[in-house]
Amino acid sequence: MAKTGVMVCGHGSRDPDAIREFASVAAGIRARLAGCRVESGFLEFARPVIADGLDKLRAAGHHHILAVPGMLLAAGHVKNDIPSVLRAYEQRHPQVRIEYARELTVTAKLLMASAERIGEVLGDSGGKLHDTLLLVVGRGASDPDANANVCKVTRMLWEGLGFGWGETCYSGVTFPLVAPALEHAARLGFRRIVVFPYFLFTGVLVKRIYAAADEAAARHPHLDIIKAPYLADHPLVLDTFAERVREIGGGGNRMNCKLCKYREQLPGFTDEVGLPQQSHHHHVEGIGTGGGDGHHHSHDGGHDHGHHHPYPHADHPLGPRWRRGR
């Protein structure tokens, strides 16, 4: 019987802090899956790449591999890029069988972890939050289902914690971006704004979110703009990762595809149904914190490698072009 190993598939970042945080999460997953060999790798911008981790598992005799995406929501990376890399590896090594876990998605545990992160900055000033606006920041994608899940996080936290108001924005690709969302929030008359990045790790985007919050605070000195920490290696996040791996064996490992733009005709995305599953990251694989060839890849205004299907609202005035025109 084939030995089973676990592969944690991260996005990758040029930011060394993000790579260290990913390593901490991988270690936490490893601790929760006692008896399993757990390796990790990145889709882009850092080493080891996903194939390197798979090579280590295969060399150790693990020909049945459970791969889990190290990402919160299912957009292009989870639906296309990582599966494409895994399928290509299976084709090169037909003795290896890889099963793929679903994304973390929106769960009670992740909402509790989010509430605790927000609580870390509210401290004794918590309690009644009717004078406080919650601004949840998602990564942003060209997949409306993933973007909608960030709105769900906002509503669950807004209603569950009793904030006076809640707003959602994104760090790139879609709209509204953080800066215009903060300007909008500043006009709603609340005394305090809590900015919560619904992110797993730090990196260029999270640091940009916090910088936008600082800039808004300077423009609106009458407002108390508070930066909440992102999820990182919160124990409930690590527990959820372990659950995703265990789900594979239990047969309950299915993504929610009812609103997937590649399967269903959605307003504005009808021409993307049935597009081929392929990765757009081969040209930046392994380039970044571990050295590289100097290839420049900008996260300004989004995450488009020039090969993605065109986003239908790329010219939205509150989206990435708005920021570049500032």
What features would you describe in this structure?
The chain has 326 residues and is an alpha/beta fold. 38% of the residues lie in helices and 15% in strands. It has nine helices and eight strands. The protein has helices at 16-32, 50-59, 76-92, 108-122, 144-161, 178-186, 204-219, 235-250, 320-324, and strands at 3-10, 37-42, 62-69, 97-100, 132-138, 165-170, 192-197, 224-227. Strands 2-1-3-4 form a four-stranded parallel sheet, with helices on both faces. Helix 1 crosses helix 8, helix 4 (108-122) runs antiparallel to helix 8 and helix 6 runs parallel beside helix 7. The protein starts with a strand and ends with a helix. Residues 291-306 and 322-326 have low confidence and may be disordered.
Q: Secondary-structure blueprint of this entry?
A:
Layout: E1 3-10, H1 16-32, E2 37-42, H2 50-59, E3 62-69, H3 76-92, E4 97-100, H4 108-122, E5 132-138, H5 144-161, E6 165-170, H6 178-186, E7 192-197, H7 204-219, E8 224-227, H8 235-250, H9 320-324
Parallel strand pairs: 1-2, 1-3, 3-4, 5-6, 5-7, 7-8
How would you describe the shape?
A: globular
Number-wise, the strands total 8
Helix-strand pattern = EHEHEHEHEHEHEHEHH
User: If helices are DSSP runs of H or I spanning 4 or more residues, what is the number of helices?
Assistant: 9
Uncertain stretches of 5 or more adjacent residues:
291-306, 322-326
Strand percentage: 15-25%
- Main pleated-sheet profile: 4 strands, parallel
Distance between the termini: 60 Å
Q: Would you tell me the structural class of the helices and strands?
A: alpha/beta
Specify the oligomeric state: single chain
What is the share of helical residues? 25-40%
- Report strand order across the widest sheet: 2-1-3-4
Arithmetic mean of pLDDT: 86
Please tell me how large the radius of gyration is: 20 Å
